[in-house]
Amino acid sequence: MASYLLKRILAMVITLWFVITITFFLMHAIPGGPFSSEKQLPDEVLEALNEKYHLNDPLYKQYFDYLGGVMTFDFGPSFKRVGISVNDLIYSGFPVSAKVGGMSILVIILMGIPIGIISALKQNSPTDYFVTIMATIGVAVPNFVIATVIIYIFSSRLGILPSHGLTSWVHYLGPVVSLSGFSLAFVARLTRSSMLEVMQQDYIRTARAKGLDEGVVIFKHALKNALIPVVTYMGPMIAAILTGSFVIERIFAIPGMGKYFVESVGNRDYTVIMGITIFYALFAIVMILIVDIIYGLIDPRIKFSD
Amino acid sequence: MNKPLLEVKNMKTSFYTHVGEVQAVRGVDFHIQPGEALGIVGESGSGKSVTAMSIMGLLQYPGRVKEGEVFFKDENLLKKSQREMMSVRGNQIAMIFQDPMTSLNPVYTVGNQIVEAIVRHQKTSKKEAREKAVEMLRLVGIPSPERRIDNYPHEFSGGMRQRAMIAIALSCEPSLLIADEPTTALDVTIQAQILELIKELREKLDTSVILITHDLGVVADVCSRVIVMYGGLIMEEGEGGDIFYRPSHPYTVGLLKSVPRMDKAEKQRLIPIPGTPPDLVKPPKGCPFAARCPHTMKICLEEMPAYTQISKTHRAACWLLDKEKSERGGE
Ligand SMILES: Nc1ncnc2c1ncn2[C@@H]1O[C@H](COP(=O)(O)OP(=O)(O)O)[C@@H](O)[C@H]1O
Ligand SMILES: [Mg+2]
Question: Exposure winner among A39, A226, A290, B310, fewest CB in 10 A?
Answer without folding.
Answer: A39
